[in-house]
Specification:
The longest helix has 19 residues, at 13-31. By secondary structure, the protein is an alpha+beta fold. The chain has one domain (2-59). 43% of the residues lie in helices and 17% in strands. Strands 1-2 form a two-stranded parallel sheet. The chain has helices at residues 13-31, 44-50, and strands spanning 2-6, 35-39. It is built from 2 helices and 2 strands.
């Protein structure tokens, strides 16, 4: 199983992530790979609320 972090962010980020995820899902399906998606809510909105770009807890 492969863990893949998703950080959609803001602006066009969510649309780009959504399409990229489709590509990875199609590829993983073709080759029999298992994907575990982990989505993180980090972006400008998160920063403005918390003043953290990427908390240490997200790196563990």
């Amino acid at each position: 199983m492969y863990n893949i972090a998703l950080i959609p962010g803001d602006g066009i980020g969510p649309e780009i992530i959504r399409e990229g995820k489709k590509v990875i899902e199609a590829t993983s399906s073709k080759y029999g790979l298992e994907i575990n998606w982990i989505e993180y809510p980090f972006g400008a909105e998160h920063y403005l609320k918390t003043r953290e770009l990427l908390p240490d807890s997200a790196l563990k």
